[in-house]
Design a protein that fits this description.
- This protein is of the alpha+beta class and 550 residues long.
- It folds into 5 domains: 115 residues, no CATH class; 72 residues, no CATH class; 64 residues; 115 residues, no CATH class; 97 residues, no CATH class.
- The protein contains 23 helices and 11 strands.
- Strands 7-8-9-10-11 form a 5-stranded mixed beta sheet, with helices on one face.
- It is globular and about 75 Å long.
């Protein structure tokens, strides 16, 4: 692995100038490396971070990668990581014209990393440097602790998705000079909504009453407001104090809770384990926004490599080559999901819709299909609109807000399903739905969504850790429960209990479609099986797992 030569670096710097002229913003410094296929295979298990700590699973992934490459050789065009400065890797046999296209794609990624608010916690740190320090720490501990180090890494990685990522973002984005008191935050965010579950009109009335108190009493307005609150809700002060104590315990972040409150980890001889857990947790926090913005990030980079390269005079003579490679990267599959293709087309669609004023009330209230198709206010605000989207959304919000029926119809998108043809013993694919809601649900179903598991502070004691899985329609994978809970039991140093929801029974519908897996006749709803859920409790004690009903 070596830095690109001066000729290639000058091409990159020229691409930076044109990208900035188009509106992209990013730091001046960046590092570009030329890598071989062997380098790529060895970097991939470390998520392309060269300074990432070593772990036995990395060796397994390298061996698997080498075997896969021997069977199916392929050359990745580029990889870019969100560090300070940004580091990107390029294959060692790319021609200049291809590097121009790739550089634009990379600059799109860097612009996204450095401007999307979900990456806010990564803007001020050099993760590559931190990862190098972590790697040296892991290497030193491996020499001292031997195989026990890998056990702790394995147990920690088993729960590295149970971190309070949104809590971190909330603290970072809160204004440091905010004059709003914790009491006020608790009253409006928790007490009224979660504890009292008041109606919307009651909530709005309280907001208006608070604003009125501020206007009439100025500095003492908040105290005047809460005098009335305590008259109406005498229990409020006690509940507020209890909530403050719970916040200190941080039950929403299982990894942090273990590090802070495990008697086992806080023994003098076991403090090194907390160091390892902190490394795993901080690494997980670094990668959380990348997992949650895959469609947006790849779509944004693809939008810009196509937009900028089509304007670049260096495409001359390579139009066919560009079309072939670009179509391979951004082709929309008939079955499955290509984040490059979907994200890019959504940004194009949003830009066009904003230019025509189709996010206005005037357009949204139109019901006539012909009027909707001809609607065009010629606003020329599309690119500014997509820059705002790039800054403020993640994949879930992006998909939920901007996949609409017009977009699905324009690109002829559909949800596909398959049925087994028992005579020929082959799978037969068919179009299951062309509705926007169904396509949107299919895309959201493939997004990263870790289970929401928190610590029940009331049921947790020195001898028992009580975890609660807040069920959101998807059960936990049973094959992972035993090993994960065994790791948590070890880190906690005592009995661990997990409350979750599992399938009790599945009732098949009375009416079956004409052919299994085929859609129902027109006008009839699709027959769906009825799932009966039950709440269960898993308990891990002395490395033995038991289960009981709640």
């Amino acid at each position: 692995m070596q830095l690109v030569d001066q000729h290639t670096k000058s091409i990159m710097e020229g691409c930076k100038e044109r990208a900035r002229d188009a509106g992209l913003t990013f730091d001046d410094e960046s590092l570009e490396y030329v890598v071989t296929n062997r380098d790529m295979i060895e970097l991939s298990p470390k998520v392309m971070i060269p300074t990432m700590y070593d772990f036995w699973v990395h060796d397994v992934e390298v061996l698997k990668g080498k075997g896969q490459y021997e069977l199916y050789p392929g050359n990745p065009y580029e990889t870019v990581i969100n560090t300070r400065p940004a580091i990107s890797f390029y294959n060692d046999n790319n021609p200049d014209w291809l590097n121009v296209m790739i550089f634009y794609h990379v600059l799109g990624h860097i612009d996204f990393f450095q401007n999307n608010l979900y990456f806010r916690h990564t803007w001020d740190d050099d993760f590559a440097g931190q990862a190098l320090a972590d790697k040296r720490t892991i290497a030193r501990l491996r020499g001292e602790k031997g195989r026990w180090l890998d056990y702790v890494i394995e147990f920690s990685r088993g729960i590295d998705n149970l971190v309070n990522y949104y809590g971190l973002l909330s603290n970072l984005n809160r204004k440091p000079d905010s004059d709003q008191s914790p009491r006020l935050d608790y009253y409006f965010d928790v007490f009224l909504q979660d504890e009292k579950k008041v109606r919307v009109n009651q909530y709005v009335n309280e907001v208006e009453r608070y604003n009125k108190c501020l206007k009439e009493h100025d500095q003492s307005g908040e105290d005047e407001f809460f005098q009335v609150v305590q008259q109406q809700h005498p229990e409020f002060p006690a509940m507020f104090d209890k909530n403050k104590r719970k916040k200190i315990a941080q039950g929403d972040d299982v990894m942090q809770f273990l590090m802070d409150h495990s008697d086992f980890l806080n023994r003098e001889e076991n403090l090194w384990m907390k160091t390892v857990m902190h490394i795993v947790r901080s690494t997980s926090m670094y990668f959380q926004p990348q997992i949650r913005t895959k469609i947006m990030n790849e779509g944004w980079a693809s939008y810009w490599h196509e937009t900028l390269f089509m304007r670049d005079d260096r495409i001359a003579g390579h139009e066919v080559d560009f079309a072939r490679i670009n179509s391979a990267v951004t082709a929309m599959p008939r079955v499955g999901l290509n984040p490059y293709a979907l994200g890019m087309r959504m940004f194009y669609h949003m830009e066009e819709a904003a230019n025509k004023g189709r996010y206005s009330r005037d357009f949204l209230k139109l019901l006539n299909a012909d009027q909707r198709r001809k609607f065009d206010q010629k606003l020329d605000i599309g690119q500014n609109f997509i820059f705002k989207v790039r800054e403020n959304l993640n994949d879930f919000l992006f998909v939920n807000m901007f996949i609409e029926q017009d977009f699905v119809d324009h690109h002829k998108l559909f949800v596909a399903d398959k049925v087994l043809d028992e005579q020929r013993m082959v799978w037969r694919w068919f179009v299951k739905s062309r509705k926007c809601e169904d396509y949107k649900a299919m895309v959201k179903d493939q997004l990263y969504h870790p289970p929401h598991i928190t610590v029940d502070l009331d049921k947790t004691g020195s001898d028992t850790l009580y975890l609660v899985h807040h069920f959101e329609g998807k059960p936990l994978l049973k094959e992972f429960i035993h090993n994960t809970m065994m790791g948590i039991e070890y880190l906690w140093g005592g009995k661990t209990t997990l409350e979750t929801t599992e399938v009790e029974s599945i009732k098949k519908p009375d009416r079956q479609p004409t052919l299994p897996g085929m859609p129902p006749p027109a006008g009839e709803p699709e027959a769906e099986p009825e799932i009966v859920w039950q709440r269960v409790r898993h308990t891990m004690k002395d490395r033995k797992l038991s289960k009981g009903l709640i």
